[in-house]
UniProtKB/TrEMBL annotation:
<dbReference type="GO" id="GO:0005634">
    <property type="term" value="C:nucleus"/>
</dbReference>
<dbReference type="InterPro" id="IPR002487">
    <property type="entry name" value="TF_Kbox"/>
</dbReference>
<feature type="region of interest" description="Disordered">
    <location>
        <begin position="74"/>
        <end position="93"/>
    </location>
</feature>
<feature type="domain" description="K-box">
    <location>
        <begin position="1"/>
        <end position="81"/>
    </location>
</feature>
<feature type="coiled-coil region">
    <location>
        <begin position="25"/>
        <end position="74"/>
    </location>
</feature>
<dbReference type="GO" id="GO:0003700">
    <property type="term" value="F:DNA-binding transcription factor activity"/>
</dbReference>
<keyword id="KW-0175">Coiled coil</keyword>
<protein>
    <recommendedName>
        <fullName>K-box domain-containing protein</fullName>
    </recommendedName>
</protein>
<dbReference type="Pfam" id="PF01486">
    <property type="entry name" value="K-box"/>
</dbReference>
Length: 110
């Protein structure tokens, strides 16, 4: 049991990048492949969680839009005229200035 624990600790240190000096090229290639497979699984899981979160947020948006419509009707306000597609296009077309400019603002060209 003690040897298994020690072996697991050595493997853990290797995966963390410690104690690699005595490793051969083949061992390093195996470690690299193992890390790449692990990283691939981690990224796949992260992407899955993001997709699930996006779906939950879309459902929440749908519920909030319905609630907003009901509240507008209750207050006697007209329904929103802008369609969902127009809103999405508007968000996509938002411009954000990312250039660094040093100098007087009036001389600046867009």
């Amino acid at each position: 049991m003690g040897k298994k624990i020690e072996l697991l600790e050595v493997n853990k240190r290797k995966l963390l990048g410690d104690g690699l000096e005595p490793c051969s090229i083949d061992e390093l290639h195996q470690l690299e492949n193992q890390l790449e497979r692990s990283l691939s699984r981690i990224r796949a899981r992260k992407n899955q969680l993001f997709r699930e979160q996006i779906e939950k947020l879309k459902e929440k948006e749908k519920i909030l839009l319905q609630e907003n419509t009901k509240l507008r009707q209750k207050c006697g306000m007209p329904p929103r005229q802008q369609s969902r597609e127009q809103e999405e296009v508007g968000v996509e077309n938002m411009d954000v200035e990312t250039e660094l400019f040093i100098g007087r603002p009036e001389r600046r060209s867009a």
